[in-house]
Design brief:
alpha/beta; eight-stranded mixed β-sheet; 10 helices; 8 strands; 36% helix
């Protein structure tokens, strides 16, 4: 059996409020590549326990995974990004005890966590995101980004959910989704500002590390066509096209959505991390 340890640590405090990370660490001296992971939950829900399967899988194959909790829900955008930016810097600054190589750190997540990973990676030096003081000389740049079925375009998903909820028999995902977006994002303007898809389409200057999009099918929640866009394909194809046009290296891979949370979705993460981080 693969040998690893699991430990919960407080990586950040906001007053009396403690923000925890769960570290999945392989046995051995290292240093190992590190994967900083972000849970999903429509920017409102989710926690460390959601990511146990992936953490154990990666640690069993020689990758340290640091999965983060962060401010979300009514804390609102951009507080989450500030916590994530700090979490990346914290991981690098604690490289020795975590047994990681600080030059080999990837960032990733699932669903809204995938969106947050790409957004944080694109803007490592954004003053709003880098607002929490940390160790001198440590930045939040990452070597690669892993997105598992991300909500890459919060604005299009907001409108997609509203349209879906108006159907005679609305799909389950759409029930209450508008309210979740409203709680976290407040306005459509914020959904457009903190939006990796539209950031690229606006031509903003951002960092574009090597990336992968791991997408299940069928998946009406994440793999849909934006009716407000002239792009002919679904959102995954649209983002991949934009990323490549901007000069980015990005892969996309599909799996049977019934296999989510199994080796079918864990192994592509491991393969990509090993490819780019060694």
């Amino acid at each position: 059996m693969p040998q690893f340890t699991t430990e919960d640590v407080v990586y950040l405090r906001h007053g009396d409020r403690e923000i925890a990370a769960r570290v999945f660490k392989p046995e051995g001296a290292g240093p190992f590549p590190a994967f900083v992971d972000l849970h999903g939950g429509a920017w409102n829900n989710g926690d460390l326990a959601d990511r146990t399967g992936l953490g154990e899988y990666l640690a069993g194959h020689g990758v340290v995974m640091v999965t983060l909790n962060f401010r979300h829900a009514a804390d609102g955008y951009p507080t989450t990004l500030a916590d994530i930016n700090y979490g990346v810097r914290w991981t690098k600054a604690h490289a020795k005890e975590l047994k990681v190589d600080p030059s080999r750190v990837a960032l990733g997540g699932a669903s809204s966590g995938g969106h947050l990973a790409m957004l944080a990676a694109m803007r490592p030096n954004d003053p709003r995101y880098a607002a929490i003081p940390g160790p001198a000389g440590v930045d939040a740049k990452v070597a690669a980004v892993v997105m598992q079925w991300p909500v890459i375009n919060p604005l299009s998903r907001y409108r997609h959910a509203i349209r879906a909820s108006a159907q005679p028999n609305p799909p389950q995902f759409s029930v209450g989704m508008k309210e979740k977006h409203d709680i976290y994002w407040h306005t459509e303007a914020e959904m457009a500002e903190g939006n990796p898809m539209l950031i690229l389409e606006r031509g903003e200057t951002v960092v574009i590390p090597p990336a992968i999009w791991i997408q299940g099918r069928p998946d009406v929640v994440h793999d849909y066509h934006d009716e407000d866009s002239s792009f002919p394909g679904n959102e995954p194809e649209r983002f991949v096209s934009n990323y490549r046009k901007a000069g980015g290296d990005i892969e996309i891979t599909y799996f049977d959505n019934a296999q989510r949370g199994t080796e079918a979705t864990h192994k592509p993460v491991l393969d990509f991390v090993k490819k780019h981080l060694g």
